[in-house]
Amino acid sequence: MIIVLKPHTTDKQINHIIEKVKKLGLKPMVSKGIERTIIGVIGEEDILRVQPLEVFPGVEKVMPVLAPYKLVSREFKQENTIVDVSGIKIGAKNIIVMAGPCSIENHTMLLKIAKQVKKAGATILRGGAFKPRTSPYAFQGLGEKGLKILHDVSKEAGIPTVTELMDIRDIDLVERYSDMIQIGARNMQNFNLLKEVGLSKKPVMLKRGMMSTIEEWLMSAEYILASGNFNVVLCERGIRTFEKATRFTLDISAVPVVKKLSHLPIIVDPSHAVGKWGLVAPVSSASIASGADGLIVEVHTDPEEALSDGAQSLLPANFKILMTEVGKIAKAMGRSV
Amino acid sequence: MIIVLKPHTTDKQINHIIEKVKKLGLKPMVSKGIERTIIGVIGEEDILRVQPLEVFPGVEKVMPVLAPYKLVSREFKQENTIVDVSGIKIGAKNIIVMAGPCSIENHTMLLKIAKQVKKAGATILRGGAFKPRTSPYAFQGLGEKGLKILHDVSKEAGIPTVTELMDIRDIDLVERYSDMIQIGARNMQNFNLLKEVGLSKKPVMLKRGMMSTIEEWLMSAEYILASGNFNVVLCERGIRTFEKATRFTLDISAVPVVKKLSHLPIIVDPSHAVGKWGLVAPVSSASIASGADGLIVEVHTDPEEALSDGAQSLLPANFKILMTEVGKIAKAMGRSV
Amino acid sequence: MIIVLKPHTTDKQINHIIEKVKKLGLKPMVSKGIERTIIGVIGEEDILRVQPLEVFPGVEKVMPVLAPYKLVSREFKQENTIVDVSGIKIGAKNIIVMAGPCSIENHTMLLKIAKQVKKAGATILRGGAFKPRTSPYAFQGLGEKGLKILHDVSKEAGIPTVTELMDIRDIDLVERYSDMIQIGARNMQNFNLLKEVGLSKKPVMLKRGMMSTIEEWLMSAEYILASGNFNVVLCERGIRTFEKATRFTLDISAVPVVKKLSHLPIIVDPSHAVGKWGLVAPVSSASIASGADGLIVEVHTDPEEALSDGAQSLLPANFKILMTEVGKIAKAMGRSV
Amino acid sequence: MIIVLKPHTTDKQINHIIEKVKKLGLKPMVSKGIERTIIGVIGEEDILRVQPLEVFPGVEKVMPVLAPYKLVSREFKQENTIVDVSGIKIGAKNIIVMAGPCSIENHTMLLKIAKQVKKAGATILRGGAFKPRTSPYAFQGLGEKGLKILHDVSKEAGIPTVTELMDIRDIDLVERYSDMIQIGARNMQNFNLLKEVGLSKKPVMLKRGMMSTIEEWLMSAEYILASGNFNVVLCERGIRTFEKATRFTLDISAVPVVKKLSHLPIIVDPSHAVGKWGLVAPVSSASIASGADGLIVEVHTDPEEALSDGAQSLLPANFKILMTEVGKIAKAMGRSV
After folding, report:
1. How near does any CA of chain C get to the CA of D322, in Å?
2. How far apart are CA D233 and CA D91, in angstroms?
């Protein structure tokens, strides 16, 4: 932690800060420059992080030196984490593609989609039973009924599943019926929910909030790891910017940034990022080329009748083309799908 | 709803869309322009809103004509809503100032602050027992113990209270111990939590998400009203932008925009918006001048020792100055504090 | 300047950096912490600012301690600068309101508007002869002809003027025909243009770029001061964010932030910020309450026929109401209009 | 153009608008819905675009139906434009890589870099003689002297060049000494400069403004085409967002969006987008995978001594690795480098 003082700070003010730092068991190092005096603090930076040093008289600003996360960092664990979802390894050499409809609508439809995406190369089935909808009047998902359909289809089609958990009270249901728990973008900072899934034995996919920095995202993952669950996969899904040609702006650089800062696997959700099916394929290829460990893609056999997010859903035929293109990119990078 | 078609759309495609619209019980009106054919749809726009019309062959884009909210709109209710918090009226002629520490730390401190802010003119005491913290290692609030302190201090000092609810499981506690339920920015789209407070008898203060449009914010309020609770106060607290001189960017225009679109009262949280105590007073004056019905301000008797957000807390002496300045602005506008 | 090193940096790498710092005539101070080694650099920070220290082996990040601007800073000059525009003082006790049409359209119209805004209390007439338009097909302004009209109207109505300069080649014209040179948001980082107006004797109004940080804005002002022209007025006009209810998001906190960092006067352009005339008045009041030294407002006698930006122009009658409201706020703050 | 009226609009107001529309030679089509009356306008939308219809009594909002650009659109020209830069074809099957230092510093250095990047596969040499710098105190480029060096090195190394034009007065120089004119992000809406390069015979690379929407960017290109120069290459270089892990946020989706909307070639500048050399390679691969026609990459033989932007410059050895990786991706897509 570096404490930058205002010009003309008095010795009394400086001593007041130094005493505070010492009282916390840390070691202050004062450096008087021409225009500013600076105090470097040696010791556990976390102790200082929660102290409002900015309010001390004479302090201009406080600059942290270290990242605020520990368990998710590359410094804590150098080798890549590989997350196992009922036998499917995320973060290893293989690119993992999760695919399926936005919402689970009925057994027949889900089974049809499950078979087609599996045939095209997807290894995890996605589908929502609890849907976070901006409008209280929009379809909110089938709830437990949807989870049962997901579970049955998973067995019939032989493909593990991922589904979103929105409400702490539903965690037992989601754990029982699916193989991986998804935390959506709107719940990335629902800290109580994070603590709960941190106590779960199931792997967790943590989507980035649409207005969250990479640092905040890693801090949210830290909540899960700190509660004991190290099986976390990060998912970049676009951030909110001024650009309106796409629903969100996919932050492609987040992939190599996260790879550098953390040992956790990272996948990309191109469907929600762009919001238009015609853009999903090129953005999927780009994601794999940037180093992502996988994708989660919306596929629907009849987007015209989809109960949610039809506009960004691919038809199975287009998904098949996407898988071929992504496969070529993966191969060019020495990976496989 | 306006459906804009691509150039060179075939009659077959146009008929396919027209049939779909009719099947939904709506009336399509086709208008063939020089460069584009457009289909206007007459009837309940909400029916179409959940249909993925963008995926129909030939459709270029779909433009909604109406706002997606109903109960919160000025069209639904023309006169201003006045929310009663244990006798304090929000949205009436009087400017309401809520003040207090970020976190409840102990009885002595809270009582001291409560007396001072009340003396300076604040009429509602704020203080958090459950704190949404970016870091799992930061102080998370005193929980139920804090709520009890809040309740006791409220009685002793004779001032009603507002406190944040983060977890559905804590709603009974918060209802029992405080006069108003706060939904924080990070939970603005925690839709299950919104539904629960919609069932509560207590008034609700709904903060705007740092990444949420005004329309999404009003939709979240709609969730609460649609569940039966019309006592909702909106709170603008800054949005996330590229500017880093302040913690967030206070969207001052949101005040007159909300006043125009909705009948609900709106207050401003200058402390979280700017993140630096030295900027709180001018931004408070600006908020009242823009037409806000009140403020929620962080005040701490000893910011140097505050367990959270000390950097943006005002000392009681500075809060008193702020109240004088705000009072002058309110008076100039024909209101009072 | 603080240089933070990566963990496990070798002594050789540290020495390499130390030598570089010394070679530049600066004094390095090494501080070895538990997790990181840090090098504080004492001396002229500007020397280091242009050095790409991040590329040195072992460097994790470089953190500047000082602001990069000098002449515009409060540290350089403590008392407020007052800019004189042909007798009108900006930055003094009086609130200055500039008003007029977006574009100069013809003599009759401009004279009519000039008289009305002057009567309502405006003391500077605005009007564009050169218009930066997103579309090459939109009205681009009357050019020199417009400037002559502006000049004639200024004499007839007895009110000084401000007008935008877009092209270095037009500087003589703008200097000859108007009292103040406006640099628009899109040219805030047109550095050659800034240098030229820095050589001018006329006062300059520098609008903030719609995506520029306050620091970059002050750096652009620094260009003008560094070329010799200290008569600079800053103008906040809204920044670009994800919110679409207004054309831009007025950054109201920028007013007190700039007041703290710089001695230059600051005014606000509410018309371009919100883009809708119905929101101009409340946002104008808020701007004055936040501490702004003035406003620049679009007024048109016939917005329905305006050749540009009619949607955000006030009718003279509404402008009069705005002036009354703003006057009350100014008075409450001990200022006057 | 669709004009949406407020509820309770009077017939008089509706007739007033209808008359205005007819007076402009357009055909209004009124459609009375349950909650709103809507007026569709048939005819040249551009005529209405410059009319401030929002100010007409009774109008709630005006929604354009068509894109505002013509010449740059796919509708105007269906096949891809291929831009020829002294024999190098941009927009064809081959991926084009432009590489070189940020600033031209001296002949020896530039020649050395030119030879190395050419050997690694780059086909155009980049290098700035005029540098737009945030600070007036930073190195501003060598000016004409730099251009001469660029020209000489181009001949010696046998590689065409691209360099930035900042000031209209320098256009003759830039045309004389280089093969392609670069318009930088900060000048994307310097409309007078755009008109001038529109009159030039040289191909133009138009960078996207860091704050500009794709639509505005295409409108700026429209300025150049409308002035007669169709040889325009677009360059995505990152937009400004709240994320601070990278210098800007590369908008990867802009590549397929532009490909859909326009016939112009598009390349990506990964160096300025991310601002850190370690992230340049993965983001370059992603750009090609998204469908970009090329890259412009900063390379410096001695980044530690670079006079500008050293932190984002690649060493020739790393550039060579990047070219290999990019080559694999290009090949996987059926293209070549």
Report:
1. 18
2. 8
